[in-house]
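Dear colleagues,

As part of the handover before I leave the project, I'm documenting each prediction I ran so the next person doesn't have to rerun anything. This entry is a single chain, and its sequence is reproduced below.
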Amino acid sequence: MLGKSLVILLIFGIVAVIELPSLIKERQWKELYVFSMFFLSALIITVMYQIFEFDFSPVSHWLTKVYSFE
């Protein structure tokens, strides 16, 4: 799992190197905010899973129940 998490964070890092200079230069603060929230969410989930071995199954079951159209 650590390998997959690092790949996801690496992809965010590559996108940041490409996109962030133009976002800051053109003062697109809303897009910068959204990008930062996605990055921080991925980082927090990775840390919770790796350090605390957090079990996401209750969250998964809740999301499945909320968004299922049965």
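The CA atoms of residues 6 and 46 lie 8 Å apart. The radius of gyration is 16 Å.

All the best with the project,
I.
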